[in-house]
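Subject: Sanity check before I submit

Could someone independently write out the structure tokens for this chain? I want to compare against mine line by line before I put it in a report. The sequence has 278 residues.
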Amino acid sequence: MKMETRYAHSPEDIRHYSTEKLREEFLIEEIFTPGKVCLTYTHNDRMIFGGVTPTDKALSIKLSTELGVDYFLERRELGVINIGGPGSIIIDGQEDKMVKQDGYYIGKETKNVEFTSDDVNNPAKFYCVSVPAHKKYPNVKIAIADITPMETGEQKTLNERKIHQYIHPNVCESCQLQMGYTVLAEGSSWNTMPCHTHERRMETYLYFDMDPDTRVFHFLGTPDETKHLVMGNEQATISPSWSIHTGVGTSNYTFIWAMCGENITYTDMDMVPMSELK
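---
Independent answer below. Compare away.
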């Protein structure tokens, strides 16, 4: 298992960053490695996120001394979405099957979580996001078959998409974690435009289900001084609370969004007028 640390930045910090420096600070290029747990700890609201890709044996996230606790979820909650082949999550000895797009909310004080794959040649890819928690809420499996997506956007603005809400007040309780799965329709490319900020919450994005030659241009920075990262399949990025949140692809794609911060109100965002973008 490996975990790298990314530190927080102010808008002034990135003003003179080169492309290489922006990628070094905000882009995570390797999320899923067969047989490995690959995590990133960002000091933006102390979120931990990354991939667990079991092959011939079960994997678990074993962090304790790094967090100053006895076990990983002693003071944290965890969200999981499988974007790979079929597998299972075993929580304190109870096993639940996880097909592609199935999710799970795992509450604070859960001691043992293991991840397995049914097929070594088509391993499960568990995308995991964990944030600090103050209260224990029940563990909940969130099956894709039970989710009715929210349809939004339109073809003429190139942002027709379906939003699957997983860890959300409409679905299950959590302390501060929100997590979901957005699928862009064929012919659409913007994940949100006009763009927005939410000073009260930071966010991470995982882009995937992309063809090898497809790229996403993920925009960050303040509305009047935007930057961008060019991202490929199964890569993730950190989006600070002060940054705009938007991206556009060379073709349609799918992404997982995860947020934490002051509230769990999905619609709490500050839209940016198009005239203010620079």
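---
OP: Matches mine. For the report I'm noting this point. The first helix runs from residue 19 to 26.
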